[in-house]
Amino acid sequence: MGGESATNYCPYCWEKVGDRDETCAACGERLTDYHSLSYGEKLLLALHHPIRESRTLAIHILGKLRSEKALEEFEKQLVENDDIFDLYEIMMALTNYACNVKVPWFMTMIAHPSPPVGRLARRLLDEADAAECRPSQATVAVSGKESSCVEE
Q1: What kind and span of H or E run contains 123?
Q2: φ, ψ for residue 86 (rounded to 5)?
Q3: Does residue 110 fall inside a structural domain?
Q4: Which string of DSSP letters, residue by residue, matches 31-93?
Q5: pLDDT given for residue 3 in this prediction
Q6: Based on the structure, what is the number of domains in the chain?
Q7: Which residues on neighbouring strands pair with residue 23, listed in sequence order?
Q8: pTM of the model
Q9: What is the number of other CB atoms lying within 10 angstroms of the CB of residue 138?
Q10: CA geometry: angle 103, 105, 108, nearest 5 deg
Q11: Range of the domain at 125
Q12: What is the CATH number of the domain that holds 63?
């Protein structure tokens, strides 16, 4: 085997860093501080990992944990991210949250330009309505706007 070593990345900005670097040259974060972060904080950073499978795993775990801190990032991703695999996993993660959190997002995502994303949102909304959510009783804020859960 050659003397090749693994490539290291900054867990804050995902730029390459050296084996012995204590601070990331790209973002200025102290790499040595990463080890003192909580598991949840590390998962939140992993939402921006360049490898899709790492992002998917972080989304899945944060959803299972019903992480309140992840909701802001999920909302941002649902609006800005065009990776349908990430969007799929985020919507699946949202199924673990209360109706007043997930239903408005499913309603919003029905109109997504990607047909598979819209179909998944429709299916999850139907399942949520059938299982435990009463659309006529839920009105919550999505992106700062009040949104009724009643379909027209």
Answers
A1: helix 115-131
A2: -65, -45
A3: yes
A4: GGGGGGS-HHHHHHHHTT-SSHHHHHHHHHHHHHTT-HHHHHHHHHHHHH---HHHHHHHHHH
A5: 56
A6: 1
A7: 30
A8: 0.80
A9: 21
A10: 110
A11: 37-148
A12: 1.25.10
43 in any annotated domain: yes
In a domain, 3, yes or no: no
For residue 35, give every residue at least 6 positions away whose Cβ sits within 8 Å of its Cβ, in sequence order, or none.
Answer: none
Cβ 87 vs Cβ 117: under 8 Å: yes
Paired tokens of 64: 């299972």
The whole-number mean pLDDT for each consecutive block of 10 residues of the chain, a chain of 152 residues, reads 72 92 94 94 95 96 97 95 95 96 95 96 92 58 43 32
Predicted local confidence at residue 47, as pLDDT: 96
Q: Is the dihedral of CA 86, 87, 92, 98 positive or negative?
A: positive
Would you state the pLDDT for residue 129? Answer: 85
Amino acid symbol at 105? W
What's at 94, amino acid-wise?
Answer: L
Give the 3-state DSSP-derived string for 64-79, with helices as H, strands as E and coil as C: HCCCHHHHHHHHHHHH
Q: Report the length, in residues, of the chain.
A: 152
SS3 141: strand
The answer to whether residue 9 is domain-embedded is no
Question: Can you tell me the distance from the alpha carbon of 27 to that of 147, in angstroms, rounded to the nearest whole number?
Answer: 38
Amino acid type, 76? K
Q: Which amino acid is at 13?
A: C
